[in-house]
Amino acid sequence: MNIPANLKYTKDHEWVSLEGDVATVGITDFAQKELGDIVYVEVEALDQTLDQDEVFGTVEAVKTVSDLFLPVSGEVIEFNENLETEPELVNSDPYAAGWMIKIKVADTAQVDALLTADQYKELIGA
């Protein structure tokens, strides 16, 4: 299972990469495997400012629909539009081409408080 050490993670199986005050967010390799074939990604929160743990969208797989939770407070400034026509990118490349949103982070200390790769591995029993 792929769990890059340079990312931060949430208990809800999202990953976060921070550059300056902009965070890129997606779901983990573990999450996409648990969900199965992803057929649709919806982000309703574009251009909205949300608090940490608020729902920013949903990911739909063949058998289930799951909410996506904002890992840190901030404004959702970008959605990966490639997912509109190729939602399977979340399955094939969850940490790069399958990213979901970018957030202008309100407090970068929230990113620091997220799980490390080792803590996430412990959470999922990897």
Automatic annotation (TrEMBL):
Cofactor note: Binds 1 lipoyl cofactor covalently.
InterPro entries: 2-oxoA_DH_lipoyl-BS (IPR003016), Biotin_lipoyl (IPR000089), GCV_H (IPR002930), GCV_H/Fam206 (IPR033753), GCV_H_sub (IPR017453), Single_hybrid_motif (IPR011053)
UniProt-listed Gene3D superfamilies: 2.40.50.100
Keyword S-adenosyl-L-methionine: no
Swiss-Prot/TrEMBL keywords: Lipoyl
GO CC annotation, single: glycine cleavage complex
Pfam families named among the record's database cross-references: GCV_H (PF01597)
All residue ranges annotated as the Lipoyl-binding domain in the record: 22-104
GO-annotated biological processes: glycine decarboxylation via glycine cleavage system; protein lipoylation
Top-level taxon in the UniProt lineage: Bacteria
Modification N6-lipoyllysine occurs at: K63
Biological role: The glycine cleavage system catalyzes the degradation of glycine. The H protein shuttles the methylamine group of glycine from the P protein to the T protein.
Listed PANTHER family: GLYCINE CLEAVAGE SYSTEM H PROTEIN, GLYCINE CLEAVAGE SYSTEM H PROTEIN-RELATED
Quaternary organization: The glycine cleavage system is composed of four proteins: P, T, L and H.
Record family assignment: Belongs to the GcvH family.
Protein name: Glycine cleavage system H protein
Organism annotation: Paenimyroides viscosum
Gene, per the UniProt record: gcvH
